[in-house]
Amino acid sequence: MPLLSYQHKVDTSYDLENGKYLNFIAAIQNSSTFSYFTVIKVKNLNTGEIKEICTKGNFVSGALHIELKADYDDKGEQKVLDFAKSKKNKYFEFKNKKALDNISFFDYKTKLVTKIQTEYSFDKAIEIIKKKKEFSIRLSDDKIKAFAHVLFNRGYLTGENDCWSGALEYIDRLKDDR
Questions:
Q1: Is a pLDDT exceeding 90 seen at residue 164?
Q2: Cα dist from 162 to 48, 50, 56, 166, whole Å
Q3: For a pLDDT cut of 90, what percent of the chain falls above it?
Q4: Which stretch of DSSP H or E encloses residue 161?
Q5: For residue range 134-144, what is the model confidence (pLDDT) as tens digits?
Q6: Residues 53, 103 contacting (CB under 8 angstroms)
Q7: What is the tens place of the pLDDT at every residue in 26-67?
Q8: For residue 80, with 0-12 CB atoms within 10 Å meaning exposed, 13-18 middle and 19 or more buried, which class applies?
Q9: From CA 70, how far away is CA 64, in angstroms rounded?
Q10: Rounded to 5 degrees, what are φ and ψ at 152?
Q11: Average pLDDT for 152-172
């Protein structure tokens, strides 16, 4: 059952940013084997490098557990969730290499996000989402993240089944009960 609701009728930049924040929180809170993708901006405090990356919400939570030295008990889970919710801009700074590894900071292919927009029609994908309230595409892991990245930044939540990877699916949180 969805924890937060957001209609994908984005009319202003505020609505888009608020929608992306709500999708981010949904991705962080999701604990099923169907993982939601989220986009965050991350600064590596060791090098100063900043990247916008797309990763699964549970990987962000795991990185925060590592960075904040939070246990996986109720208190630690709440600490991580409260910290994530406080980041309305979805900007994080990590020093711990394991936390950075957990979100694939070093391996994330930012150039692929630009490239994939020339290979696929995202306007067509969004048209399908709006009309059918569903969308699915099979891609390689790197392309799935890049595709999810673009859709997230346009206000659309997507995910992938961890048991049956290879297909990116649109999430309609108003009707989804994952």
A1: no
A2: 32, 28, 10, 9
A3: 82
A4: strand 158-161
A5: 999 999 999 99
A6: yes
A7: 999 998 889 999 999 999 999 999 999 999 999 999 999 999
A8: buried
A9: 8
A10: -60, -45
A11: 88
CA-to-CA distance for 178 and 176, rounded, in angstroms?
Answer: 6
The dihedrals phi and psi of 8, each to the nearest 5 degrees, come to -90, 35
Give the side-chain half-sphere CA count within 13 A for 144: 23
Residue with tokens 């929180």: 25
C-alpha separations of 109 from 58, 118, 169 in Å = 20, 15, 21
Q: What percent of the chain has pLDDT over 70?
A: 88
pLDDT band with cut points at 50, 70 and 90 for residue 173 = confident
Using an 8 Å Cβ cutoff, are 157 and 170 in contact?
Answer: yes
Q: How many CB atoms lie within 10 A of CB 178?
A: 16
Helix 141-153 vs helix 13-29: crossing angle, to nearest 10: 140
Q: How far apart are CA 34 and CA 162, in angstroms?
A: 6
